[in-house]
Design a protein that fits this description.
By secondary structure, the chain is mainly alpha-helical. It has 2 domains: 2-149, no CATH class; 158-213, no CATH class. Helices cover 71% and strands 0% of the residues. It contains 11 helices and no strands. The protein has helices spanning 2-21, 38-57, 61-77, 81-92, 98-110, 116-126, 132-157, 161-164, 169-181, 184-189, 194-202. The longest helix is centred in the C-terminal third of the chain and has 26 residues, at 132-157. The protein starts with a helix and ends in an 11-residue tail after the last helix.
Length: 213
Amino acid sequence: MELFGRLVLIGIGVFIAFVAVRPWLKLPKGPTIKPPNVRVIFLMLAFAGLFLGLGTFGQEFIPHYASWLGTVRGMVSSPGQKSYAAFFDSVGKEKIPVELQEIGINYAVSHPIEGMETILNNSINKAPKNTNGEKALQWALESYKGKQKETDYLIETKGGAASVGQFDPATRQLIYDKMQRLPDDRKRVLRIDDKSLEEHRAILRPFPKRPDR
């Protein structure tokens, strides 16, 4: 009976994981499905990991799983240098599964905090050399720098609120945050004033039940 229960849990976990990654699978049949946002994927894979872990290792898996999930969730619930550093250090030391590493990195890149490049470099320096953990952090740093360059490009070439409104909510927020932090002389060159900032703020779409920044 216990074996059957574990097999059921494993089956549920596999099914949830399949549903989460289904939009990216190139299947011969079936309609095209728009990929869900990072938060939805995170929740789905989190539940999939829980069911798979319980089915494979039993109840002793729960404390480890709670620790892994708490490290990633810390960035969402309490964003700051401490929570981001804790997550990146865990990635470098390979203390959490690869799937949660990728979900967490993608979230951090889309929701960067001040000093994130320094935090990443510090975690890279502390990670064991030539390991998958170090490579994951280097990938995170490359992704962060690329996202910042993309944001700069959008501000300088397509800075109007009307054109930015076509992008996803996370990109809109990144653009607005960066526009606010620009030096006054750079704002003048790009013709960014209080009115244009207000227009950009008006098109923001914060996650439901989450306060505006």
